[in-house]
Amino acid sequence: MIRYSVVFLFIALEIISLILISNNKGYQRSVMLSSGNAMVGRMYEMTNSFVEFFKLSEANDNLANENTQLRNRVVELENKLSTLTDTLNSVSWKNVSVSPEKEYSYITAKVIRNTTHLSQNYITLNKGSNEGITPDMGVVGEEGVVGIVKSVSPKFSVVIPILNPKILISSKFKKNDYSGPLVWNGKDARFASLNDIARHVRFSLGDTLITSGLTKTFPEGIMIGTINDYNIKESDAYYNIQVKLAVNFRTLTHVKIINYKNYREQSVLEQTAADEGKKK
User: 5-24 and 26-90 are packed helices; what angle lies between their axes, rounded to 10 degrees?
Assistant: First the structure.
């Protein structure tokens, strides 16, 4: 303690000097008060920024939920309009019903983990079986197709995105209905490959690619991407087609899970038919 006595004495004298200056010198006192106010102002500014950041996150969650509610309402109204149109065309009001493949709704979820740089990427969502999510449900973003639910727990879901070669997305050209599987080549998060498009098919750069509706995972017509590049050799029967994906996976924050209401009924029926076919 003795060897630090000089330091303690120096600090004490400094404190006394500052008190005397602030009490007796108007200019020095104003400078000290101004400096103090500036520091307090900066602290308030940092605090407000911190609070605004979390308010913005909450606002994004609220907007995602509102968008999902609106999307569900749009689906419902589209189905009713389609039913009424079909009924009017047939001049009959009997047996009015929605086409079974169109009976679906959306569940909002937030992305809490997402990779784009691996050879096999995955996405984790903050909702699971408690919210009615089950494996094989389709997942979409505001721009288009994201992927397919792989596994769920009560509170979380893991999604296999397009950026994973383990899944194929059944796709078709919007303008002519020619379809083929979309698969990621493991290289660039912005692009995927469209396969099995024969050389007689006519298409152009920039053409839109949408879901075909040939699987239970996605209804027909959801945006996938646009044709970015293509080539074909004289000896090839099929094109090599590069698709620019509609979804920017590096900025993905919220998604919608597609709840196809007739999924189980259709799956059971198809599996039964497949099993009977094997017996013959």
Answer: 80
